[in-house]
Each structure stands twice: as C-alpha cells, then as structure tokens.
Amino acid sequence: MLDPLAAVTEAFTSFLFGKVETTRLPVRTSTGQAQAVYLPTAAPGLGDSGVIIGREVYSGKGYIYDPFQLYGQQLPAPHWLVLGESGNGKSALEKTYVLRQLRFRDRQVVVLDAQGEDGVGEWNLIAEELGITPVRLDPMAALSGGIRLNPLDPSITTTGQLALLRTIIEVAMGHGLDERAGFALKVAHSHVNETITDRQPVLADIVERLRHPEAESAEAMNVDIDDVRAWGLDVALVLDRLVDGDLRGMFDGPTSAGIDLDAPLIVFDLSHIDRNSIAMPILMAIVGVWLEHTWIRPDRKKRIFLVEEAWHIINSPFVAQLFQRLLKFGRRLGLSFVAVVHHLSDVVDGSAAREAAAILKMASTRTVYAQKADEARATGLVLGLPRWAVEIIPTLTPGIAVWDVNGNVQVVKHLITEAERPLVYTDRAMTEDGLALELAAEAEAAERTAAAMEERLADEAYGSSEPTVA
Asked: Which of 33, 187, 355, 397 could bond 445 through an S-S bridge, CB–CB 3.0 to 4.6 Å?
C-alpha cells in the first residue's frame, strides 16, 4: 500500500515539474581512468616484472627494470651504461641492483671490482655477506701462491689465445703489431701449443720461443732465422713483463684451481692494481677472455658482467675489440654487460672513438647521474637525450638519475632498504653521523625534485613542448 505522504509528494512533484524526479545514477570509473587521475597507482612504465629500482620522480610510479625481461620487446640489446661523477650514487645502484637480481635463482653475476680501501675491494662486504671469497688478483700475493689466470689456458680456444696475446702486446706497446711481429708471435704460439702436451703451456714458453725461434719457421718464409728473432724481440720484451716484471705471478703459470664458476656472485678484486697504469686494461682483457671461454655457457642462466672503471676497456681500441665480440656473442647466451664510467669524455675523445661508439651503441640502457653542465651537454649529444633531460642532469641530487631505456626517458629516484644500506655504503666515512647527513640530504633532494616536478607539470599544462628546469 502506497504511503499517503509519499503519494502526496509524488502528486505535487508531478504537478510542479511535469514528471517524477529521477534518481542520480552512481558514478563509475575504469582502472585506466583512476590511474590517469592518480598516477602513483598506474603500472610501471617498463612493466611489472624484474627488480625494483625506485620510483619515477615526476609521476611517483614504481620503477622496475630487468634487461632480460625487456630484451627483444622494448630493448634491442640487454647491455647497460652507467655514467656520473663520484658521490652521486652509482656504486649504491650497482650493488643494490646485483643483490636484487640474485634473488632470482637463474641469475649469475661477475664483478670486476677496481676500487677499494684498506686492502680490499668495494664489493668485499657483499661477498662476505653471501659467503663468497673474492678472486683477488695481486702481484705480491701471486708470488706466494695467490690466484693465477693463464692466458694460454686450454679452455680458451687457440684462436682466442692468439687474439688475447696480441691484445696484451698492443695495449702495452700503444699501437698495433706489424705483420712481421705478428708472424713471429703466431709461429711461437703455434709451436708451443703443438709441442707441449704434458702440462698447460704458459707465457714463459712463448717468450722462450720468441727469443729462440725454430729454423723451420724461417725456412717456411724463406727468410733468415735472425730476422725472425728480430721481429719477435719487442713482443718478447712486452710479454716478459708478465713473466718477470712488475706483473709477474698473476698470469705466468697454470690457472689456479678452486675458482667457483658456479657461484651466484664472482668478484674479481683488482683493487691492488694501479688504476692509471697499463696493467689495468691488460688485466681486464685477460679476465674478460678467460670468462668468455669458461663462464659463459649455453644453459638457461641469465648472466650479468659488471665492470667498474670500464673506461679501461672502452678507451683501448685493442681491448674494446675483444669485448665487442664478447657482447655480440653474449646476447645469444643471456649476458648483460654493465659498464660503469665517470665521464663519457673519457671514452669518446681518445684513439678508440670508433670502438667506443660501437660499444655505446650496444648499450640500449643508459643511466646518467649528476654532471656539470658542459659534460651533460656533451653526454646528451652522444647519447641522443632529449633537451629537457640534458637540462636537468646538472640539477640532479645524489640518488637521482636520468634513465634512458631505448628512448623511454624518465627521472628516477633510487630507493635503498635499511637492510641494504650497510652493504652498499662501504666508505669508512659513512659513520652514524654520516648516515644522518645522508638521510638529511635525501630529504632535501625530495623537496627539490618535488619543486622541479611542479614546474615541469606547469610547463606542460601551458602547452610547453619540452619542460625546462630553473
């Protein structure tokens, strides 16, 4: 039965408005519409599979990156270049990235650790946390039974051995081998491999054969044996440095047993080598080629090869050529190469500009931390960054970087957990007081980036095609 009051109300409404008042329908929205209104709820721009890096500064969305997940779809190559001046967070990014990648059971990481203090490399704390002993390459320790890597290790192909020997000599000499010196080296290497079968051939065998070539090699070329000896003399003197010079002990014997190539993390501690000497690129070349033939295997594992002070590799045309082959070869076998460099000018202005450009082209991911304005402009020109990204690089604060993932450019704040902090901040100066200063700096950085975000959004709202930063 209709309520009398309701009936009177309905009749009055009909008389007044000519129809019965309708009820407003509930508001409905889609997930996409809600995400457009509140960006932090939107899906990460690079997908939701991989390791968490941090958050996008302008949208607040989480930033997730994994070259293995993106390769073939959003990335033409899984290799990564990290740039920036010291003290801006490159080291912390590398270490947290590796720790988070190792949560996946099918991941393996090799690190060439070229920095350190107190006699150990920067990665020593992380290695200890994971129960791993770094492979410490130290000329002094090698003389008393330390680690050795043999460039003539039988696990390396004959062609690979000869290419590595040429690279060592060319790096040390600063120029390529001429045809005569190359012939003398090839003959000595071939003779050593053919005649020594009861043990691993070593560099001393090559040096001995260069100094005392076989008569048959001279007869084959219809030249005098003294000529062959003269052609190989400079080569012998260079290799002798690895046998009886300042680098002796690390490469002049059989490869040491006990290097666990199945460990999730393998750290080569190079911190005892002078970073500014020619020894470092020689060392990296030997380690790189040895790993190419012993560590990279056709299985289902995904491998990360991280090189600090990578300008030693990229800036040498001879070493760069070896690593170009490694990068091309590695893509088919699940290898992601991570090169960490302070300044791009370190690698594009030297004699290896062509080789450097080739390696940079293979790096589809580029992360750029704070740089001075002129350096930022040069970096942006080489990497093809948009104008707004180049302008913001000098204003970046520690922990914030411009990420360019095959043209997808974002400003990203790297986030570090409390559990990771003691492992990734390895500088002794990072005491409790230093940590407090770090946290204060992060708070200040958050305020500055929020202001920059507001300015950028305002520019876009008024139709500016590219945001500017004050």
From this structure: 397
CATH number for the domain formed by residue range(s) 39-147+256-461: 3.40.50.300
Q: How many Å apart are CA 270 and CA 121, to the nearest integer?
A: 7
Q: What is the DSSP string of 52-91?
A: EEEEETTT--EEEE-HHHHBTTTBS--EEEEE--TTSSHH
The answer to whether residues 316 and 349 touch, using CB atoms and an 8 Å cutoff, is no
Q: What's the DSSP call for residue 383?
A: H
Q: What is the pLDDT of residue 463?
A: 46
Residue 467 pLDDT exceeds 50: no
Instruction: Report pLDDT digits (tens) over 264-308.
Output: 999 999 888 877 777 888 888 888 888 888 888 777 789 999 998
pLDDT higher than 80, residue 253: yes
Start-end of H helices in 78-129:
90-101, 124-129
Average pLDDT score over the chain: 80
d(CA 40, CA 281): 45
Coil vs helix vs strand at 155: coil
Check residue 62 and give left, alpha or beta (phi > 0: left; psi -120 to 50: alpha): beta
Residue 464 pLDDT greater than 70, yes or no:
no
- Strands 51-56 and 62-65 turn out to be antiparallel
What is the C-alpha to C-alpha distance for residues 411 and 136, in angstroms, rounded to an integer? Answer: 37
Q: Is 304 left (phi over 0), alpha (psi -120 to 50) or beta?
A: beta
CA distance 31 to 420: 34
Rounded Cα distance between 419 and 416, Å, is: 8
Question: 341-368, pLDDT tens digit by residue?
Answer: 888 776 665 555 677 777 888 889 999 9
Cβ(171)–Cβ(316) under 8 Å? yes
Question: DSSP states of 253-287 as a string?
Answer: SPPPTT--TTSSEEEEE-TTS-TTSTHHHHHHHHH
Pairwise CA distance, residues 364 & 116, whole Å: 29
CA 211/CA 7 separation, integer angstroms: 118
